[in-house]
């Protein structure tokens, strides 16, 4: 079985103590999710989501049955 590719090759230009670790990637993903959730909470585009996705699907379903 071949060895898994290491981050050392991808980030070898960085000193070893500065290379991203698994916990760094997990933290960045967590903060990204938190940021997106906060943006949706602040903007609250629920009417746009409903109009764009839900009503459009209902209209298309009505056309296929008629």
**Stretches with pLDDT under 50, minimum 5 residues:** none
On the 0 to 100 scale, the average pLDDT is 81
Largest sheet: none
Helix content percent band:
55-70%
Decide which structural class fits the backbone: mainly alpha
Q: How many E strands?
A: 0
Number of helices: 3
Percent strand equals under 5%
Compressed to H and E, one letter per element, the order equals: HHH
Radius of gyration: 22 Å
Shape: elongated
Q: Give the terminus-to-terminus CA distance.
A: 57 Å
Kindly describe this structure.
With 66 residues, this protein is mainly α. The protein has a domain of 34 residues. It has three helices and no strands. The longest helix has 22 residues. The model has no long low-confidence stretch (mean pLDDT 81).
List descriptors.
66 residues, mainly alpha, 3 helices
Structure at a glance:
70% of the residues lie in helices and 0% in strands. It is mainly α.
Question: Any chance you could write out the topology, listing elements then pairs?
Answer:
Blueprint: H1 7-10, H2 22-43, H3 46-65
């Amino acid at each position: 079985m071949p060895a898994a590719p290491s981050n050392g090759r991808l980030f070898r230009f960085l000193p070893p103590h500065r290379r991203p670790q698994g916990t760094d990637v997990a933290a960045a993903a967590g903060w990204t999710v938190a940021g997106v959730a906060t943006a949706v909470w602040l903007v609250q585009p629920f009417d746009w989501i409903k109009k764009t996705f839900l009503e459009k699907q209902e209209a298309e379903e009505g056309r296929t049955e008629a």
